[in-house]
Predict the structure of ATP-binding cassette domain-containing protein.
Amino acid sequence: MSLLDIKNLTIALNTQDGLVTAVDKVSLSLADGEIHALAGESGSGKSLLAKAIIGLLSDDWTVIADRMFYEGEDLQAMDFQQRRELMGNEIAMIFQDPANSLDPIVRIEEQLLEALPRTITKGPLNFFRARKKLRQQAITLLHQVGVKDHERLLKAYPHEISEGLCQKVVIAMAIALRPRLLIADEPTATMEPRAQGQLFRLLRKFNQLHNMSILLLSHDMYTAAQLSTRITMMYSGHVVESGLTERMIQFPVHPYTEAMVASTPSFSGQVTKKAPLPELRGGVPTLQHMPIGCRLGPRCPYAQRQCVELPLLKRFKGRSYRCHYPLNLDALRKKDKS
Ligand SMILES: Nc1ncnc2c1ncn2[C@@H]1O[C@H](COP(=O)(O)OP(=O)(O)OP(=O)(O)O)[C@@H](O)[C@H]1O
């Protein structure tokens, strides 16, 4: 049984002119203990999908799915309180905007101590001893996420520290409760490269030691590939391809995945000095002006007349894709035989 099992999830914004669909019939399955990346350019619907999972979308949004299960429990049938409990006990989320995740008028120390599980102070401890123990645990967590000067940080208010430090605090708070599932929305966006590597090592460690599953949201294919074993690629509210990370980078089936891989220097090998990186022409369509048929159609170098019809999601050798003219199927077939 999958930890997370979503089938045909549609998220639409209620506007004066009717419903505007932002995420269209997206399916996603995450196995227990898996690190799964949700990749795609900004505006593809990754954050909306994550917020729908944790039940954080306001009434402005309509969320419909054929199936939306967490460990066999129907998320759509849960009331607000049950959803909150699930968030507190099982699922944690790191949001894109770290500073906004913290209370601006409370010192970091109080916020961090508040987030720690009370089981640490189980037993006959008086207030001061319990607090000392919690504080020590908070410092250990801060060191794990790469904070060196913990004393200064603990005394500070969120506005007195950098966005990168805010992000580290938010990550420490998220992993403090040892969630079964961590949803991380661009967790390294505000971090310097060395800190990114450190965070990924930490997340991998939590994944291996505590079987913490991770859903990583990233607009950057390289970041997604560094941590994940599977990638689901989104474009303009559709899933265009999903499969094992290594294979997908080696043999992308959807033209959008191919373009994302080609525009990432770390995958495409040698880059001639000052040569522009290959990229798709045009930009991501707005919600109000979605092309009919395949949403990549107007930007796709392989587009043909048939692309005005929406391609069905097909499966091949463990890969699912939505394209009339898939790439690399022969290479995948051969690879499977060898
Ligand atoms: N509150 C909102 N009101 C109107 N449109 C919204 C709102 N939130 C998201 N959208 C639109 O929904 C689409 C998907 O947004 P979403 O934030 O999920 O994308 P994303 O892939 O997470 O990109 P990013 O990383 O930039 O947030 C975008 O077109 C976005 O403009």
User: Anything to note?
Assistant: The first strand starts at residue 4 and ends at 15. The mean pLDDT is 90. Residues 127-144 form the longest helix (18 residues).
